[in-house]
Amino acid sequence: MKYAYKGLDEALRCERPVDLPISLDLNRTDNLVVWLSAVRVYSFGMMFAIDARYEDPALSLSLGSFDGRPTFTHFSAPLLVGLGFADGTSATTVQKSRGPLLELRSTESRSGSVHGEYLLAPIPPAGPIEVATAWPQLGMDEKVVALDGAVIASASDRVTQLWEPTHQPKPGLTTEQVTHQPQYQRGGWFGIRLD
Q: Can you state the percent helix, strand and coil of the chain, rounding each to 5?
């Protein structure tokens, strides 16, 4: 990592990542499709998106939960995701490891579809990345596909640091910030429509 930060929020705020044009089918059955839809590389790791579509719109799909515990209420059981790296290490969404961090950061689900963003840290070593997926409760067997880790590793060198992290006390908040009133230019596009 070429920059030093005090936490993930600071790192995400201070960098402009490199978006890679990667779309990769990860797994498929007759009524369920899972694919990698986006890869965004930072100096400290990467965010990637997984999308899934299920033929039956009555089922709300779940990629998992943010604390690692499965959610089974009115949603499907979670998708299992695992990554294997050229140096022999691995990470899964099923179990926290002492090695690389892999976690679901956000998810949006609609009837029969779901989109989720995952964080992987640190940057994987150059070499092939095994991407394993399975959704046993929906009849999807385990499948492993390869992703080019060299492309991701080299993209991390092109990340732009927007500014140095600042560690200053937070300024006092104004009334508008506390009450979350929208701030816009009077007479501008928003002003014309909102005033």
A: 15, 40, 45
Q: Does residue 183 sit in helix, strand or coil? A: coil
Residue 134's CB is within 10 A of a number of other CB atoms, namely: 18
Q: Which CATH number does the domain 8-161 belong to among 2.60.40.1640, 1.20.1250.20, 3.10.180.10, 3.30.365.10? A: 2.60.40.1640
Q: What confidence tens digit (pLDDT) does each residue in 40-70 have? A: 999 999 999 999 999 988 888 878 764 444 4
Which of 135, 129, 134 shows the shortest CA–CA distance to 20? 129
d(CA 35, CA 30): 14
Helix (H, G, I), strand (E, B) or coil at 146: strand
91-123 per-position pLDDT tens digit: 988 877 777 899 999 989 888 899 999 999 999
